[in-house]
# Entry
Amino acid sequence: MVLQDEHGASFTKAEEIQQLATDFYQALFTSESPLRNLTLYNLNTKKLSPVQRINMDKAFLPLELKNNVFSIKGTKAPGPDGMSGHFF
# Structure
């Protein structure tokens, strides 16, 4: 396995990879993380219609939530968090 840091340096030793991952997540979850201060101005995005806004504000039904979570395939991750269906 090879991981690269933000400067493009490659790491292959288990100890180096572990330290790189630790450093990455410590930086990610500190208040000084640049990702937390990211602003999303001037994006060319579509706006929701009034009907879409009403639908987005509806509460989740427990059965609807259960059906959606359990429909995730065991080895697939539906989003960027990487949590697969096996997790749930």
Residues 5 and 20 are 7 Å apart (CA to CA). The chain has two domains: 1-38, 46-88. The longest strand covers residues 3-4. DSSP finds three helices and two strands in the chain.
